[in-house]
Amino acid sequence: MRGDLIEAFAPGAGAARAAALFRATYGIEPDGVWSSPGRVNLVGEHTDYNGGLCLPIALPHRTYAALRRTEQDTDGLELVSAQEQAPSRVAFARVGPLWPTGWTAYPTGVAWALTNATGTTVAGWQLAVDSCVPYGAGLSSSAALECAVGLGLDEVFGLGLSADDEGRALLAQACIEAENVVAGAATGGMDQSASLLCRPGHALLLDTGAGTRRHVPLDMAAEGLALLVVDTRAPHQLVDGQYAARRATCEAIAARVGVRVLGELAPDDLPAAAAALVGPVTLPDGTVVDVETQRRRLRHVVTEIARVRAVVALAAQGRLAEAGPLLDASHASLRDDYEVSCPELDLVASAAREAGALGARMTGGGFGGSAIALVEQDRVDDVLAHVRAAFARAGFARPDALVATPAGAGNKEEQA
Ligand code: GAF
């Protein structure tokens, strides 16, 4: 059964693959290869754009970017990916809001955002990408791509951002800008921060309101636990109206309650805050959100932040095994109050629990993508088999899976 999991590339193999693709495409050596991981979030969902807390870990699965700065054609950006059809050429002068479209928006958007942030024109380069981060699985394949490219551009253009966590936070910000402005996905920033700042053996506690972070030791193996990640393979797309609508709703609620962000509210504030929500709200796209829905959205955000605190407290005491009910409550809140789950995600959560998982929840933005289950190590195979059988009975596609261990942030690879 273990051979049936999505494996990360073996050490050295990802860099070798990206470098080989680079040579085959451009007929020259790259200046180097940089890599950055996908992530899975333990708890704290849809809180990062609300000034709240979240708790991601970096996956061992990474995206590899072989990069070379070109001297001659300083407006030309050349890109190729092992996961895409044909090489592309993009004129840097044209990169900007919502252009280009498709996968090249992410790397070219990072160059655009770094240019804006630093005043150095980050143009004139060739890129070859390979990746083992599952694509479209809600495991941040786009952030892994942005961050791998960002690290490479940082070095070959001598920007000096990646040396310490403060600089990396700025680099993450440029990757977020690329995603928000050029790719047009109004995401919150957890994924890029995880990809650039996580440490092996730790979860990253991000306080997006205070702008602070803490590395929380997470020794699941010491407790005999494993984190099973199940990719439902249900279509998942963040560049759609639902994610942006949730974000816009939260911003409208915060304004009505009289706070800057919903993360300023504690669970005790909920009754008064809910009472302040009177009358429907109309979002910029014309969607009308009724009062009852506003109150449920508010309750999700505030209770989810409290669940992050509770999981961190348990992890600090080596009692992660007791976090199951908190993960279950997170799933229920995302399903019922925030309404970002889907039948496939609900089925992973319920089937995993039936088979003995300690707790299970959807992870990431939702509307498809992946769910996680906290499982005793020797139950991983049984839980996965049970989930797959339930999917077969429901007529859903066979889900993919991996076992997540907290890995490290992006870095330069030893040359392949
Ligand atoms: C996606 C987004 F990219 C993140 O910023 C975050 O909002 C997440 O959904 C939900 O917690 O991964």
From TrEMBL:
<feature type="domain" description="Galactokinase N-terminal">
    <location>
        <begin position="21"/>
        <end position="69"/>
    </location>
</feature>
<dbReference type="GO" id="GO:0005829">
    <property type="term" value="C:cytosol"/>
</dbReference>
<dbReference type="InterPro" id="IPR000705">
    <property type="entry name" value="Galactokinase"/>
</dbReference>
<dbReference type="Pfam" id="PF00288">
    <property type="entry name" value="GHMP_kinases_N"/>
</dbReference>
<dbReference type="InterPro" id="IPR036554">
    <property type="entry name" value="GHMP_kinase_C_sf"/>
</dbReference>
<protein>
    <recommendedName>
        <fullName>Galactokinase</fullName>
        <ecNumber>2.7.1.6</ecNumber>
    </recommendedName>
</protein>
<dbReference type="GO" id="GO:0005524">
    <property type="term" value="F:ATP binding"/>
</dbReference>
<dbReference type="InterPro" id="IPR006204">
    <property type="entry name" value="GHMP_kinase_N_dom"/>
</dbReference>
<keyword id="KW-0418">Kinase</keyword>
<dbReference type="GO" id="GO:0046872">
    <property type="term" value="F:metal ion binding"/>
</dbReference>
<dbReference type="InterPro" id="IPR006203">
    <property type="entry name" value="GHMP_knse_ATP-bd_CS"/>
</dbReference>
<keyword id="KW-0119">Carbohydrate metabolism</keyword>
<dbReference type="InterPro" id="IPR006206">
    <property type="entry name" value="Mevalonate/galactokinase"/>
</dbReference>
<dbReference type="Pfam" id="PF10509">
    <property type="entry name" value="GalKase_gal_bdg"/>
</dbReference>
<keyword id="KW-0547">Nucleotide-binding</keyword>
<feature type="domain" description="GHMP kinase C-terminal">
    <location>
        <begin position="314"/>
        <end position="392"/>
    </location>
</feature>
<keyword id="KW-0808">Transferase</keyword>
<comment type="similarity">
    <text>Belongs to the GHMP kinase family. GalK subfamily.</text>
</comment>
<dbReference type="InterPro" id="IPR019539">
    <property type="entry name" value="GalKase_N"/>
</dbReference>
<keyword id="KW-0460">Magnesium</keyword>
<dbReference type="GO" id="GO:0006012">
    <property type="term" value="P:galactose metabolic process"/>
</dbReference>
<feature type="domain" description="GHMP kinase N-terminal">
    <location>
        <begin position="106"/>
        <end position="197"/>
    </location>
</feature>
<dbReference type="Pfam" id="PF08544">
    <property type="entry name" value="GHMP_kinases_C"/>
</dbReference>
<keyword id="KW-0299">Galactose metabolism</keyword>
<keyword id="KW-0067">ATP-binding</keyword>
<dbReference type="GO" id="GO:0004335">
    <property type="term" value="F:galactokinase activity"/>
</dbReference>
<keyword id="KW-0479">Metal-binding</keyword>
<dbReference type="InterPro" id="IPR014721">
    <property type="entry name" value="Ribsml_uS5_D2-typ_fold_subgr"/>
</dbReference>
<dbReference type="InterPro" id="IPR020568">
    <property type="entry name" value="Ribosomal_Su5_D2-typ_SF"/>
</dbReference>
<dbReference type="InterPro" id="IPR013750">
    <property type="entry name" value="GHMP_kinase_C_dom"/>
</dbReference>
